[in-house]
Design a protein that fits this description.
- About 50% of the residues lie in helices and about 10% in strands.
- The chain is an alpha/beta fold.
- The protein folds into 2 domains: about 5-15 and about 95-220, HAD superfamily/HAD-like (Rossmann fold); about 15-90.
- A 6-stranded parallel sheet has the order 3-2-1-4-5-6.
- It binds magnesium ion (MG).
- Magnesium ion binds near residues 9, 11 and 175.
Amino acid sequence: MKISGIIYDLDDTLISRDEAFYSGFTRKFYEKFIDKAQFDFDIFFKIMKSADKKTKWSPEKENLFNELRKNFNLKEDNKFYVDFFWDSIVNSVKPDIEANNHLEQLNEINFPWGVLTNGYKYQHEKMIRSGVGKLAPFYIVSGDFGCHKPCKEVFIEASKKIELACEEILFVGDTAETDIIGAKSVGMKTAWVKMGRDYPLKDKPDYEINHVKELGSILNLF
Ligand SMILES: [Mg+2]
């Protein structure tokens, strides 16, 4: 299979969104909004983990808070918590040094690549804080474009930006339902970031990887 370019998802592919979610947002949310007499941190953490599992694929974060409201009495409206969510996540994003080294190596050999991320304005800030923004030849934020992965149009847009046919592009992402299904629907090759999980759907990706740094040798690039 000939791969001439790579498009990456951002969260949990080039940066650890989960680390920002759990060490940033989850802790701050507990400190500020949860009645500690009623819920100790471990119980709260379990509920948060299950709510996140149900809603993390969606760029609409109100879903997370609707889920949390089933267990917790949250006094403010969803918009308030969604803003709090993004502020704390964005402030907790750190560069993934190994991922950035991998991207720098691509740049050294002039290998075409870019980023396609679901979400809205906060994704721009994550690109900056992670250091990916200054490395990336281009990136697309789905909310700016007008439809989110897995919609075909946003993948087609990415293929235009990278100036390659979909069949020559490898799409790399951690979410089967958005990244892998969407990329397959336009004929891109796919690599799924496992994060300790088994692939949840029948139609498997071309590659399963633990970290993007593995792609250099998998694709015989460097
Ligand atoms: Mg992701």
